[in-house]
Specification:
heterodimer; A: mainly alpha; 12 helices; about 85% helix; B: alpha/beta; 6-stranded mixed sheet; 4-stranded antiparallel sheet; 10 helices
Chain lengths: ~280, ~300
């Protein structure tokens, strides 16, 4: 087994011990409980009055998207907060000295750490995503349109966020990394909304600004693509909310996010290679 | 650079500049294989930066360094290197045995080999009874022992030890001394950075003094301690003129009561000094030369305390 996999393994164990992970898991359970109760009330309310099954299905699907959006938001924040310290903290504490002097290349340190957190995040997303889908199905009988696509896109979104925090960790202190990573996530969120607004306003400047923001940090566009994949076709053409889309990120946007992720990890490797530890 | 096979480490004009601050200005030194080499210097002299360059943690601004005939920092060179950082720390949820196992794997050792090697090393550094305890509850001294263990787990050809005894009690220090000697006995090279000069004096074969990022002196402690002698004499009725005469042939003479102290570079001059004192009319009761300790040599070479 090469150094890369040994590091990935120990990073996964380290990641799984983070309190933030378990706090996020607890938060997910609480939100899921609130979600289930809200759905139950909604269903009870619907049963009390005449409503066409079609409209009812649309509303319940919309509710499901709210649940999945919450799940997505928690996953991205949890990814950033758990991994923010992994390089920055070990560099500042000197823990990395005992690793970087072993016969392993620095690209293996970056990739090993990435893989360890990636495994943890994937398991977290899978658990929270399918729990949300299961709760919604149990209460309302509604399922998302393409759940696998949706989940994979949420995992991809977390991978992009993870690569950015790892890149920041090669250069900045833990606190600076945290501020920058959450700030970039804010840029992505803003970009998503600007693109949505542009669907109504027809302003090319707003479109450009929105696209630029999504290029700087393409996480939110991955969520919007996930939402598009999972929502009902009607909701896709009508809704206006962060859980659904007016302006749908194209497949090109998804491919861009993939290229962005590879580029960011490559820059992280170059930067760690060049820095003095 | 041609590195002879007997060289463990060879540097030429190794230089490191951080912004406008010169940390290492031109380090040239040679460490032979199988040698216990002491790397001495005041705080801020560039010792840590030099070690980090040899280990590949810091990229040199200029010059060249070879470790075991390979460029410093080369992955193959690191296969043969063990390193104990000054303030060793690691994931505190690992047990001592798990930590050694992990570091052994990172060094490319097989799980089979580690099954016997880990208990051996735990025994060697004196924490076998804490094998299954988590690092979280370890004292600084225990962490230091474990750090030493991870540096030795793969029986490297060169062991870099940065202040290995700083957190240890006298028993721990003796253990470190024994471990260092055992490394030499198996043919390994030890590169020791320590402030405890008395420790260095009894452990090292050779030392280099570094100041302002340069080697200012090297000494072989095996061949002689003839760096000089500190002489204490009991002398009565020493006249000021005799003291002035004495100042011309010895270092820093001081006379208080009947106690005369001064430094000389060789014991050979002592009979002449005694003759000079007797001829001046002084009464000489006792003359005791003592070899200059490494600490005196350090102060002599490195100079005044700069408050670093």
């Amino acid at each position: 087994m090469s150094g890369l996999w040994i590091l990935a393994g120990v990073t996964l164990r380290e990641a799984a011990r983070r309190k933030i992970l378990w706090t996020a898991m607890l938060a997910a359970v609480l939100l899921l409980a609130i979600f289930a109760v809200a759905l139950r009330f909604q269903v009870a309310e619907f049963e009390g009055r005449p409503m066409s099954p079609f409209v009812r299905y649309q509303v319940e699907s919309g509710m499901l998207m709210v649940g999945l959006y919450t799940c997505d938001l928690l996953a991205v924040v949890m990814t950033i907060l758990t991994s923010i310290d992994t390089l920055a903290g070990e560099i500042s504490s000197g823990t990395i000295h005992a690793i970087a002097t072993k016969p392993i290349a620095r690209w293996q340190i970056v990739t090993g750490k990435f893989l360890g957190f990636a495994a943890m995040v994937t398991v977290y997303v899978a658990i929270t995503f399918w729990s949300t889908v299961a709760v919604a199905f149990a209460v309302t009988g509604v399922l998302p349109e393409h759940p696998f696509h949706g989940m994979l896109l949420i995992v991809a979104e977390c991978m992009v966020a993870l690569s950015v925090t790892i890149l920041l960790g090669t250069r900045f202190s833990t606190l600076t990394c945290g501020v920058l990573a959450l700030g970039l996530q804010g840029v992505a969120f803003m970009g998503g909304w600007l693109e949505q607004v542009s669907g109504f306003s027809q302003s090319t400047q707003i479109v450009t600004l929105g696209v630029l923001s999504s290029l700087i940090m393409p996480t939110e566009s991955l969520w919007r693509r996930a939402a598009y994949e999972m929502q009902t076709p009607l909701a896709g053409s009508l809704s206006f909310s962060p859980f659904a889309n007016v302006s749908i990120p194209s497949v090109t946007a998804v491919v861009y996010a993939g290229g962005y992720f590879v580029f960011i990890l490559w820059v992280a490797i170059v930067l760690l290679n060049r820095r003095d530890l | 650079m041609n590195t002879s096979p007997s060289c463990a480490i060879e540097t030429r004009n190794l230089r490191k500049v951080f912004g406008s601050r010169v940390a290492v200005s031109g380090l040239s030194l040679t460490v032979n294989r199988g040698e216990i080499f002491g790397f001495l210097g005041p705080n801020g002299a560039g010792k840590s930066t030099s070690i980090k360059m040899l280990l590949g943690l810091v990229r040199p601004t200029g010059g060249h360094a070879d470790v075991l005939g390979l460029p410093a920092g080369d992955v193959d060179a690191r296969r043969q290197i063990g390193f104990l950082p000054e303030d060793f720390r690691f994931y505190d949820w690992l047990t001592a045995a798990e930590l050694l196992h992990l570091h052994g794997r990172l060094c490319g050792m097989s799980a089979d080999r580690l099954r016997t090697r880990v208990p051996e090393v735990l025994e060697l550094v004196g924490i076998a009874q804490h094998a299954d305890r988590r690092l979280r509850g370890f004292s600084k001294g225990m962490l230091q022992r474990l750090g030493l263990g991870q540096a030795l787990i793969h029986e490297p050809q060169i062991v870099f030890l940065d202040e290995p005894t700083s957190g240890l009690d006298p028993i721990g220090r003796r253990m470190v001394r024994d471990v260092i000697r055992a490394q030499r006995d198996r043919g390994a090279t030890v590169f020791l950075n320590s402030h405890l000069l008395s420790e260095v004096e009894i452990t090292c074969d050779r030392v280099a003094f570094i100041k302002d990022g340069e080697v200012i002196a090297e000494r072989d402690l095996r061949t002689s301690s003839a760096e000089g002698f500190h002489v204490t004499a009991q002398v009565g009725k020493l006249s000021p003129s005799a003291l002035a005469q004495l100042a011309a042939v010895v270092r820093a003479p001081r006379y208080e009561g009947e106690r005369l102290t001064f430094g000389v570079s060789s014991q050979d001059v002592l009979p002449e000094i005694v003759r000079l004192l007797v001829a001046s009319g002084a009464d000489v009761y006792r003359v005791t030369p003592e070899p200059l300790a490494l600490e005196d040599l350090f102060v002599k070479l490195v100079g005044e305390d700069r408050g670093l």
